[in-house]
């Protein structure tokens, strides 16, 4: 198409997540003249802005032949308003697809190959189907160590890379798979109180009922600009910011959105995703928590060995000081599973509440100790004592509040309007807890989109219960979600009670 043709924009109010989609009538003159059909890639231009979009063809009177509809994100990125002319033309061929096909067929990619793919993803040139193909091609150990090193470096190079003018710059991350494991806000408060710099950028949930950003958003704004983030860190030494609001490893944000419905999280992509974000955020020293358990993300010592080796190799090659900590993944951490419920656990620990979850407190103290020692804030073996004293004295809670207020204020978590208690049907001992089923149950209840939804545990492994004793409560914001979750619960019990 040499001269761009125009169609008149008609808003349709269709949300396609991050994928750019254009809706055109099947009898549209552009479709006919250019052979455009469903799933064709087109370039759309409006004033000085352009995006690559996938065409969906309308076979009804929803649109006239001279009109075009846009998904909500496409409308926003183009700045289009009703009645505006939108120029439409065939999109240029994607040269990086040859690199993608190379990986799909099981061949190795070099740094240049990954850079071309990651660049096209970050620029919005890949449809979801292309991104899904890339994620799948990198899964099941189909990427070697050098490929993960190159992918990580490519993801860092494409986006913004922060510098804080100090060293060390601390960070901490958990590979996930363990419901309620919300240690990060506690660790940040402790480490920042100790005088270290910890500008924490966190993700939203990918396959879990809550990510750190989801939990913190219950209590304080987390969608901050880079300038706002810098102001908070300069003032308080730490922050709790959603990484998606920044331009750090932008291709990773798009890949995460595709990986979420697939529930796909391979070691190669996990390592590249985590470490690219740490490096891009300016971290020099990072502690990685790997929970191990039969229903955690990492299920065995052998799998943990492989993941730890990959993390260490990629971190070293990219100049990041890394410490891997293995933790118990047999059961959830804390009592709450879901944004508001996990936020309550965090607050209870920081406030030194007598009923605060002991396991969450101890795990957070251990991880904070590792960060303090890795960064040279205290001698080896003295980190736990220092971390504990900061929490007991109330310094951690004060620092947490100051960071929240610097980000826009602190709000106490709300409670769900619907609560259903689940009790023991038999007497016995809690012999096993299925993390995956509990996470699934919390998601069916509405978490993380419904902030107060989720599950609150009232028992732990090894506890003895009598018939009728409370096991956990289900929290929902809509009756339909509770009903749906109860149907799942009937055939997928998350707790195994060994009868007495």
From TrEMBL:
Pfam families: Glycos_trans_3N, Glycos_transf_3, PYNP_C. It is an enzyme of class 2 (transferase). InterPro entries: Glycosyl_Trfase_fam3 (IPR000312), Glycosyl_Trfase_fam3_N_dom (IPR017459), Glycosyl_Trfase_fam3_N_dom_sf (IPR036320), Nuc_phospho_transferase (IPR035902), PYNP-like_C_sf (IPR036566), PYNP_C (IPR013102), Pyrmidine_PPase_CS (IPR017872), Thym_Pase_Put (IPR028579). Signal peptide: none annotated. Residues 429-496 form the Pyrimidine nucleoside phosphorylase C-terminal domain. It catalyses: thymidine + phosphate = 2-deoxy-alpha-D-ribose 1-phosphate + thymine. It comes from the Bacteria. Keywords: Glycosyltransferase, Transferase. Its EC number is 2.4.2.4. Belongs to the thymidine/pyrimidine-nucleoside phosphorylase family. Type 2 subfamily. HAMAP family: Thymid_phosp_2 (MF_00703). This is Putative thymidine phosphorylase.
